[in-house]
Design brief:
Keywords: Coiled coil. The chain contains six helices and seven strands; from the N terminus they run ααααβαβββββαβ. The protein has 297 residues and is α+β, with helices and mostly antiparallel strands. The chain is rod-shaped, with a radius of gyration of 60 Å.
């Protein structure tokens, strides 16, 4: 019983002591300081979480930039970039602009973290410096690729202008060639006509009566021989090329040449009972007249 009384007295004393401490000014000050520290710790913890979230976002963005960078670099430098279709070139420009905007955003976020003096971790700040350096490198690369693409655009514009100029030259040349070909064809035709006219000769082989009817020879009187007329219609004659024909078959057993030709320029030969006119010197044979008149009986 006495022991129980002692315990109760001790408990009452402890409660009384604690109550006195809680009501003291020193306790209240310590309690307020503890609450402030806990609140500040909570704020710093939230700030650190936010900082690491930003850092994680930047690192993920950099990873995406690294992946896109290789594709864009290959496309932009493909065969001097001049064979890339216009749609693809425009897409490359848009992609590079998007990457450039993202880099500026990440750089601004890192600079904001660097200025926050509440984050004193050396490792954290070292990581920020490394990210800043890599972002600068990526930014310089994008600027270089953009400059290359702009230069290639300028080269492409020059080549396009040169091609257009060459197309115009080729078109003009084609027109000139067409004109020359037309002139050449007309000239060839004219030369051929002149050539044909120059070397065209005519002959007629018929009986005396037929020659008179055709107006090739005139009637001769008792004391007057027949004369050859060269004013008769050409349709009564056969037209030949003096360069190609060197023999003419009269299809007659008897024949005589009425037109004037050098005697030593041709020969009358009888082959298979038919008279053949063999022309040994065509130039001299047709020199005096282009009309050969042969009378058959």
């Amino acid at each position: 019983m006495k022991r129980i009384f002692i315990v109760l007295v001790s408990a009452l004393f402890a409660v009384s002591f604690i109550s006195c401490v809680e009501n003291s000014g020193k306790y209240k000050a310590l309690r307020a300081q503890l609450d402030s520290l806990q609140q500040e710790h909570g704020i710093q913890s939230g700030e650190l979480d936010e900082a690491f979230a930003i850092l994680n976002e930047v690192e993920q963005g950099l990873q995406s930039i690294r992946e896109s960078e290789n594709i864009i670099t290959v496309q932009a430098q493909s065969r001097d970039g001049l064979d890339v279709p216009a749609e693809s070139r425009e897409q490359i420009k848009n992609d590079m602009q998007a990457i450039s905007d993202a880099i500026r955003q990440y750089q601004a976020q890192i600079e904001q973290l660097k200025k926050d003096n509440r984050i004193q971790s050396a490792q954290f700040r070292k990581r920020l410096d490394a990210l800043s350096a890599e972002l600068r490198q990526k930014s310089e690369l994008i600027e270089s690729l953009t400059a290359q693409l702009n230069e290639k655009d300028a080269q492409l514009a020059v080549k396009t202008e040169q091609i257009a100029s060459l197309d115009l030259v080729v078109s003009n040349l084609k027109e000139e060639v067409a004109t020359l070909n037309k002139s050449s064809d007309e000239l060839k035709k004219k030369v051929a006509e002149q050539d044909r006219e120059l070397y065209s000769v005519y002959y007629i082989i018929a009986s005396k009566a037929d020659l008179i009817d055709a107006g090739v020879i005139t009637k001769g009187g008792l004391f007057k021989s027949s004369k050859v007329s060269y004013e008769s219609e050409k349709n009564s004659f056969v037209t030949i090329d003096s360069r190609e024909i060197t023999s003419i078959n009269t299809n007659a057993k008897k024949a005589k040449v009425l037109s004037v030709h050098p005697a030593d320029s041709y020969l009358l030969e009888k082959i298979n009972d038919e008279i053949i006119i063999s022309i040994s010197d065509p130039a001299r044979f047709w020199e005096q007249t282009k009309y050969l008149v042969v009378q058959t009986n």
